[in-house]
Amino acid sequence: MQRTIDWMDGSVVIIDQCALPGTYRTLRLDTVDELIDAIARLAIRGAPALGAAGALGVVLAARAGGAVSEEAARVAKARPTAVNLSWGVARALAKLPEGVDAVLAEALEMLDEDERTNREASRLASEVVLDLCGRRPLRLLTHCNAGRLATVGWGTALGVVWHLQAGGFVDSVLVDETRPLLQGARLTAWELAEAGIPYRVLPDNAAAAAMSRGLVDCVLVGADRIAANGDVANKIGTYGLAIAARHHGIPFVVVAPQSTVDYSIPGGGSIVIEERSPAEVTHLAGVAIAPPGADAFNPAFDVTPASLVTALITETGPHPA
Prior knowledge:
Blueprint: E1 5-8, E2 11-15, E3 26-29, H1 32-40, H2 47-64, H3 68-76, H4 83-93, H5 100-133, E4 138-142, H6 157-166, E5 170-176, H7 183-195, E6 199-202, H8 207-212, E7 218-221, E8 225-227, E9 232-235, H9 238-247, E10 252-255, E11 261-262, H10 279-282, E12 283-284, E13 287-288, E14 301-304, E15 311-314, E16 317-318
Helix pairs in contact: 1-2, 2-3, 2-4, 2-5, 3-4, 4-5, 5-6
């Protein structure tokens, strides 16, 4: 299976997530500018995939010569909330004194490591889910996309679904559409269909109603940045899901690699939240759905307090330990 992001013949090669589900295509990115554009328009997205993109951005900069550190800083700032992006840049940049080949070797190791890490995190999380819910076919609810498209090649929260399905423990998955850019309806549903797992897409504002009707056994989400105290920044709408899950007594489980934990931030109040263009809200597929000139509040992420998280699992186990 093709990786979401990879290095091939001197170029960064990605699955273009803006084209799915209608078209499956790959893009070759040969410059830092092309990589930054792909990150900004979400052709590359998902915290672990962004970590890989950060490292490969340093490779592109180092191979081009010039002010590598300045170019690397531009990559790191392309999206401010996902800590993996700056983490990937810093890790690859640390190898620059050893030469371009050392930078590339580090980036390639990070690609392999990402898949191993997320397989282990999701494996551990799948056992936590079964402990919480019982070893039976489960009705799961997801938000945004935390599958292979959000990582190099496996997935975090959706990786849990792959493990549970292999054991015969998935009844079906409810997929939040994830407004305004529909990563759930476009990407998660596509991955589940590809895997042959029963699913239904639902509007984000129907999730609480589904819980109230007994249609959800567990909520599974990923994360873009985790504060030292366990507060979780994830796609906008995650906080509301956590509140609804707590009200209905449903486990709310977060799955992410350890690299997503930012120990420099004590709590979620210090996490910078990216705000995106109002046009993403006021337009749908290029068609206006609000009056001309309408403004919009369009944060890409929100912060869920650790007190609402039933379990937060990385490849090393529960966090905070």
